[in-house]
């Protein structure tokens, strides 16, 4: 099969929803009738309606994986429903080639009274398998779910984890060309999760995948492209998942300030990296491998602030927001609060990170007088750090100083 | 490779949608059977009386009317056959029609959770509803035949037409049900109105008594198309008078196009329903 064939093509896709139930139902009746008449008019917003998805465009080939990210209510589920053919778009078009499989709800069609074995058939039938296919795969499903002992027990006596296992085991038998995955795998124990991820990556290698998740490390690991949805409008990051994730994280902060401080206790007066102020816009710092990283900062605490000790930790995260390195001081009395201001500096002599783009975050932790630990605040992603000069083929970000004999 | 296009519908072809719909009905036989089996099994596994519940409704209605008639509370015109058999066959045919009418809404409503999550042929819901109805009806009809033996009703050749009559009955009920389903999915009022109308209609249809020979009731009953459907279906069982056979035949001829219209309408309206119920 050709590998660069476009399996999913989405052009100018829009969908509107109504905010009010009664109005929504009435529009429903109107849509039913205009639907039969073959409404050719362009659809515009009627009173109390809004665009849940507005002008989304993308293409997806076999072997590619599109991440769909955005806040709650950004339009992700609506988009998935249109792609899955459950609801019709209000304008634009979706073209999908091949079998579509959806991992959106596991265990659809289960009846709690019936046994696991019977429910495999129910679930399988809804997912589009024939009786013969299920007969053939029955043993494999039971083994995958690892619940042979309980397979003839009513599903209502299963634990939620067992239900998910069974549901996933059936769904995993699909051989789709286009796979739609919503965050279904948030349940189950670690062992089974790993099994699921392995199965999914086995499936995804053969098809085009659309993946919705709030977990950025997952998105970074799996996806090749990304769409960041914000109030229905999609920003398409083709081949640049890292930038999409950054935009997603930044989108949580309303002002366009260059640094994002989450704290009820202090504000940032100044922060420098290698002498460059990070309060100005475009705070990307370029650094060669193994060179020095120097951070100094001035934090102003609230007037009534009384703490005995403060700890700072400087966290270096990669594009998927996974922490790769940390530098922190011991709870130290040397860093004194003078007139509600703390000045500190950190010197990291050799930054042994491989070439990549990292972000810097500062966490501030305090101890109260009776020694309870509290988080005073975080300065999020205040700088982008581009390390150059050390290409690394493996994915490990840190090079350890080592001697070999 | 199969290609699907989802867009705002702007060119409709009745025949094309009908073809797709019938294809899905055919393709979803296994799913429909599986769903029907699931519901029937689950229903009876959690019950001691099990299938007996199928009989209880028509039997209680029949008993009430046998009592009313034999105690002289109500005076009824001659039915031509033994009254208990008349009443039981009437309530049976009526209950099958009523079930057919409400089934599409009930099935669709029961699958609400699925509809907004998974793309499967929706026609399977209707087909599985029909399967379930047939399952229930078989027991009721079995009981009817036992009654007919007990009351020594003459068996006649027209009885062979009875299955055909039932198919027409079910098709008609489901067709009207399909047309009403989108509305009753959106507004709960519709279902309540249907129930109300049906309980009124039972008394202007020869269910528990025959069409009187004169009077206001006769006019009402003759205006009601169900009179012909229920009446002729029963006449098939008892080789009755087959009055107004021509009107019945007209209804039979209309029944199939209306059913197809129902299928197309249902298929078109499902996305709208899903959108409005899961938004």
Automatic annotation (TrEMBL), chain A:
The chain positions of domain ABC transporter read: 36-257
Q: Name one GO molecular function term.
A: ATP hydrolysis activity
Q: Does the keyword Transport apply?
A: yes
Q: Which SUPFAM superfamilies match?
A: P-loop containing nucleoside triphosphate hydrolases
Q: Which Gene3D superfamilies match?
A: P-loop containing nucleotide triphosphate hydrolases
User: Does the record bear Amino-acid biosynthesis in its keywords?
Assistant: no
InterPro entries for the chain: AAA+_ATPase, ABC_transporter-like_ATP-bd, ABC_transporter-like_CS, ABC_transpr_TagH-like, Bact_Polysacc_Export_ATP-bd, P-loop_NTPase
The record's annotation in PANTHER family points to: TEICHOIC ACIDS EXPORT ATP-BINDING PROTEIN TAGH
Protein's name according to its UniProt entry: ABC transporter domain-containing protein
- According to its UniProt entry, this protein's organism is Neotamlana nanhaiensis
What does the organism's lineage look like at the top?
Bacteria, Pseudomonadati, Bacteroidota, Flavobacteriia, Flavobacteriales
UniProtKB/TrEMBL annotation, chain B:
Residue ranges occupied by any ABC transmembrane type-2 domain in the UniProt entry:
49-269
Give the record's membrane topology: Multi-pass membrane protein
Q: Which InterPro entries match?
A: ABC2_TM (IPR013525), ABC2_TM_bact-type (IPR047817)
Q: What Gene Ontology molecular-function terms does this entry list?
A: ABC-type transporter activity
Residue ranges spanning the membrane: these are: 48-68, 80-97, 130-151, 157-181, 193-211, 245-266
Q: In this entry, which stretches build a coiled coil?
A: none
GO CC, any one term? plasma membrane
User: Its domain of life?
Assistant: Bacteria
One GO process term, biological-process aspect? lipopolysaccharide transport
Q: Which UniProt keywords apply?
A: Cell inner membrane, Cell membrane, Membrane, Transmembrane, Transmembrane helix, Transport
**Where, subcellularly, is it found?**
Cell inner membrane; Cell membrane
What's the family? Belongs to the ABC-2 integral membrane protein family.
Q: What is this protein called?
A: Transport permease protein
Q: Which organism is it from?
A: Neotamlana nanhaiensis
- Lineage of this protein's species? Bacteria, Pseudomonadati, Bacteroidota, Flavobacteriia, Flavobacteriales
